[in-house]
Every structure is written in C-alpha cells, then in structure tokens.
Amino acid sequence: ESSVGVAVRRSVDLLVGLYAVVKAGGAYVPIDPDQPAERVGYVVGIADPVLVVTTSSDRVVVPAGVRVVELDTLDVSGFSDSPVGDGERRAPLRPENPAYVIFTSGSTGRPKGVAVPHEGVVNRLLWMQDRYLLASDDVVLQKTPVTFDVSVWELFWPLMVGARLVIAEPDGHHDPAYLMNAIVENDVTTMHFVPSMLAVFAAEPAVTRCMSLRRVFASGEALPAQTASRMRALLPGARIHNLYGPTEAAVDVTFHEVTGADRTVVPIGAPVWNTQVYVLDGRLRVV
C-alpha cells in the first residue's frame, strides 16, 4: 500500500510513470509541477510517498528527506522487462488496495487526499467499455490534468481495449484551436470536456471540422442544455454523454446520453454498475 508521487507534466513519461506505479502495486499520487511549492509540499507531507517520480525538466522541490527519481535519467538496464507479479511485490496486490490518491480542493480550502481502490477503478472502466464499446480503431485524446480523476479513464480505458491514445500538450486543454487541430490530425473519436470549456469549444466556427468525433463526455459541472444542443447540431455524428460523480466514488456514479428531449435541463441520469443513488431532501432524508 505504498504511495508514489508522480510529478510529471502531460507526456509519454507521465503515462509510463503512472503505469509503473500501478503495476508495482503502489498507489500513484499525481502532483502538478506547476503548482506553488507550498501546495506541493503540503500534498507530499500528507501523502507521505516512498518517493516522488519526476523528470529532469519537470523536477519539483519537495520536502527534505523525500527521495526523488528522474524517469529520463534512471538507468533501468539491469532490470528485467518481464511482467511484474506478486512474487516481486512486498505483498500480493488486492482489489481493496488503493490505485491512486487524488487531492481535491476540500471543503476547508486545504487539499484533501482521496484514495480510490483498484476494485472501484476496474468497475468503472469495465462499465464504461460495456456501455460505450471502444474499439481498436478508436482514438482517445488525453487532455485532462492528471490531478483530476477524469484523467484516469482517459489514460487507462483506451490501452485496456487496444484503442489508440493521443496525449495532448501540457497546456493544450485550454486552447480550442489546438484541440481542434489535434482532433482533426489524429482522427480523435472520443474525448472529455468540462461543460464550460465545451461551451467555448462549441462557439468556434471551425468545430464542424471535427467530424471524427463519436463520443463527447462532459462532467465536472452542470451541462447546460443549450451547449449540448449546439454540439449535437454542429456534430450530428457525435453522441454527447453527461456524467456525474464525486472523486470518492471512482470518477462517476451516473450517466445520461443527451437527446432532443433535453431542451431545458440535461439529467444526470442513471447509476453505473454496482452503484446506488439516493435523492435526499434538505434534512438528508430519502425522498
């Protein structure tokens, strides 16, 4: 149940680092190298990782005594490239062991670490594949910062089923023009937007160039019906999916595919696998 900090900007090195931690049986703790040193120090202090993985160009300042390993300078020639098994781990990897620890803003304003177990992540990924049927000719654009849990399915879902993964430039998720070019050049079929960014994206005249899109997922905020309707009109070949869920519940707990009937409000939908949803009143009583 060791945790390992991963302080790498969005890149192939980031992907390698995350997969290495998970395969070794640890829980990765994503750290944004661009965050202030105080926040990085707080996250490292609370998570207490056995080490922090970074690169020579992304290297962050961590509290004294914390071991730092640079992926791009580490000599691994003396290690076997065969799959890692329980025999090489300090203890067998179990479904209830944490896969990652993501720090949210927290209700107090101080970052709060949320540990999510392998069984929760696997349930979420298997449900997503059963529901949306990603295939080998699909292309997923990974653009969500790794400190947000949407990045989990972006990083693991496509490679789990043999689809292609395209990794956006570190700051590319802020630039609609960059995103459009990335979609067109790589024939991206599947991607995610925070609704406010989806509205900005949908307002771009050139969005109709993105004809390869088949699945557009939205979560993190309420999805305005007007934004969803505009996307459906501009890209009739793409289906718009509204997802909802807290970080504590392995990314999402409900889903809804937008239809023409969603003119004023887009529902959050029905529960994903192995999940129950309750509607409560102001006194937390079941309605």
UniProtKB/TrEMBL annotation:
<dbReference type="InterPro" id="IPR042099">
    <property type="entry name" value="ANL_N_sf"/>
</dbReference>
<protein>
    <submittedName>
        <fullName>Non-ribosomal peptide synthetase</fullName>
    </submittedName>
</protein>
<dbReference type="Pfam" id="PF00501">
    <property type="entry name" value="AMP-binding"/>
</dbReference>
<feature type="domain" description="AMP-dependent synthetase/ligase">
    <location>
        <begin position="2"/>
        <end position="283"/>
    </location>
</feature>
<dbReference type="InterPro" id="IPR020845">
    <property type="entry name" value="AMP-binding_CS"/>
</dbReference>
<dbReference type="InterPro" id="IPR000873">
    <property type="entry name" value="AMP-dep_synth/lig_dom"/>
</dbReference>
<dbReference type="GO" id="GO:0043041">
    <property type="term" value="P:amino acid activation for nonribosomal peptide biosynthetic process"/>
</dbReference>
<dbReference type="InterPro" id="IPR052091">
    <property type="entry name" value="Beta-ala_Activ/Resist"/>
</dbReference>
